[in-house]
Prior knowledge:
ATP hydrolysis activity; globular; ABC transporter ATP-binding protein; nucleotide-binding; Rossmann fold; ATP binding; alpha/beta
Amino acid sequence: xxxxxxxxxxxxxxxxxxxxxxxxxxxxxxxxxxxxxxxxxxxxxxxxxxxxxxxxxxxxxxxxxxxxxxxxxxxxxxxxxxxxxxxxxxxxxxxxxxxxxxxxxxxxxxxxxxxxxxxxxxxxxxxxxxxxxxxxxxxxxxxxxxxxxxxxxxxxxxxxxxxxxxxxxxxxxxxxxxxxxxxxxxxxxxxxxxxxxxxxxxxxxxxxxxxxxxxxxxxxxxxxxxxxxxx
Length: 231
Ligand SMILES: Nc1ncnc2c1ncn2[C@@H]1O[C@H](COP(=O)(O)OP(=O)(O)OP(=O)(O)O)[C@@H](O)[C@H]1O
């Protein structure tokens, strides 16, 4: 599903290249649940942003579902993103002026999904995540855990094949964090959604089936966890 070949990313500062990622090559199969771990500044978010097509690598190739993302024009890249990728952020990134319902609806409007299909998808998500009673509230009227549920519902609305999550529980208390991780595990095991998360938490990583350890922009270790369920 995802193939990275020799990905490099650097930022130039006064003629000096500061490498953030070096020689990153890996393959991620459909149905995997991968955790990217490593020290602060290791390049984890940069890698996730490249996977999510939010940033471009300086060198190397990135194939997503057989398409070479690095050579696609912007319109095609956005289409690929909208059709297949759901992004979940640590700080939720909900739109404050929109209700829960409207936040979940936003990506469906971008995709020009028709009215009745929108209504039914949103109703399903609200129901599944137990937030029907919250649908007319605004993000600042919700707890952190509830906001993250809305963030995940929004990411799922467009029925993506991959969820990319950058520290999805970083702002949450442990009980809420556990609820979110259990939800990810369910989405992965029952719905077959591929999940790639950046996390600092060893415990969160145990919900997945593979850990990529990166340090100084290099993959140092690639560990399969027992009970792996790669499809
Ligand atoms: N736009 C930029 N310009 C220059 N340097 C950048 C830029 N974006 C990121 N970096 C540098 O790239 C390195 C990796 O950043 P990244 O956010 O990927 O690390 P991380 O592993 O996710 O760290 P953390 O765990 O602290 O979030 C850092 O040293 C950062 O300063």
